[in-house]
């Protein structure tokens, strides 16, 4: 099967990183503020180190675009030591699996170098055909993570500026699709209580859900989006960010009102929204720009896009245009993101256009 080694590596790398983030989530969380005023935690740094070291071990020639860098850790010994403790403590319980992704990191220095290994500019400059770039968000939904809500570790492989493989580790999504989705204080439920999924997709191979474990890769089950037609739009489940600073709740309300949607939107942090659509827990995801200047980041959407598309859904911007992955670290040619099933895509896009034009 194409991308078999890449998929296995990505699944194990995210599973190992989630051991770290789950452990961090049980502590009293604090964050450091970045230059764009957004938060970052020891969980973000530690997860980035673990995933990048696994990718470098398996695919030393691939480029990596990742959200974080190690500057704050190089300047702060206490913070660096804390991240290093967590990184050393995160190992898969299956020895063969752990060694297949390179085994434990050897030193603090290796950890910092791994974190700084995600500085690629992606597809910004015209490159050779078949160029491979991984896009990593070590914790997507850091604000959700800090609230004990939904978060995801998101990893995608892009080839020729198209996502061809994506994995979302969602430690706080229920394994039983009929269980309620916790939107805060999820970590109080603890591990081993039916929470944690790995949702993955490879181009042409469909989308698969697995239990997020602590050893080797668990058995996967295929998953599809729910099929909703225009006649059922009123009862469709819409979801959006918890943060009104990331997506306009007001525009969302006008759009659902226009479409006659009866229930209020499910608010959830992170790419757990894409995972929820792929798992048939929700039907439409709207991310409506709050500022004209913000550029969506590729690591916030690449894994989500392929996971939803392979589950039968559509992903585009607020004009309904495909996302353009050839622009570097951001999606600067697109504004906002809309995700929906094929049966309601045209209808949703036209409602979005009408509301944003008004
Ligand atoms: N003004 C803005 N508009 C849209 N997205 C934004 C934003 N400011 C930050 N973000 C992004 O929103 C992501 C979280 O999305 P959501 O609201 O769906 O949980 C953040 O990812 P991180 O948490 O990885 O930094 C961040 O990259
Ligand atoms: Mg961030
Ligand atoms: Mg993110
Ligand atoms: Mg992040």
Automatic annotation (TrEMBL):
<keyword id="KW-0460">Magnesium</keyword>
<dbReference type="InterPro" id="IPR051090">
    <property type="entry name" value="Inositol_monoP_superfamily"/>
</dbReference>
<dbReference type="InterPro" id="IPR020583">
    <property type="entry name" value="Inositol_monoP_metal-BS"/>
</dbReference>
<feature type="binding site">
    <location>
        <position position="139"/>
    </location>
    <ligand>
        <name>Mg(2+)</name>
    </ligand>
</feature>
<feature type="binding site">
    <location>
        <position position="137"/>
    </location>
    <ligand>
        <name>Mg(2+)</name>
    </ligand>
</feature>
<dbReference type="GO" id="GO:0046872">
    <property type="term" value="F:metal ion binding"/>
</dbReference>
<comment type="similarity">
    <text>Belongs to the inositol monophosphatase superfamily.</text>
</comment>
<feature type="binding site">
    <location>
        <position position="300"/>
    </location>
    <ligand>
        <name>Mg(2+)</name>
    </ligand>
</feature>
<dbReference type="InterPro" id="IPR006239">
    <property type="entry name" value="DPNP"/>
</dbReference>
<dbReference type="GO" id="GO:0000103">
    <property type="term" value="P:sulfate assimilation"/>
</dbReference>
<comment type="function">
    <text>Converts adenosine 3'-phosphate 5'-phosphosulfate (PAPS) to adenosine 5'-phosphosulfate (APS) and 3'(2')-phosphoadenosine 5'-phosphate (PAP) to AMP.</text>
</comment>
<keyword id="KW-0378">Hydrolase</keyword>
<dbReference type="GO" id="GO:0046854">
    <property type="term" value="P:phosphatidylinositol phosphate biosynthetic process"/>
</dbReference>
<dbReference type="Pfam" id="PF00459">
    <property type="entry name" value="Inositol_P"/>
</dbReference>
<dbReference type="GO" id="GO:0043647">
    <property type="term" value="P:inositol phosphate metabolic process"/>
</dbReference>
<dbReference type="InterPro" id="IPR020550">
    <property type="entry name" value="Inositol_monophosphatase_CS"/>
</dbReference>
<keyword id="KW-0479">Metal-binding</keyword>
<dbReference type="GO" id="GO:0008441">
    <property type="term" value="F:3'(2'),5'-bisphosphate nucleotidase activity"/>
</dbReference>
<protein>
    <recommendedName>
        <fullName>3'(2'),5'-bisphosphate nucleotidase</fullName>
        <ecNumber>3.1.3.7</ecNumber>
    </recommendedName>
</protein>
<feature type="binding site">
    <location>
        <position position="67"/>
    </location>
    <ligand>
        <name>Mg(2+)</name>
    </ligand>
</feature>
<feature type="binding site">
    <location>
        <position position="140"/>
    </location>
    <ligand>
        <name>Mg(2+)</name>
    </ligand>
</feature>
<dbReference type="InterPro" id="IPR000760">
    <property type="entry name" value="Inositol_monophosphatase-like"/>
</dbReference>
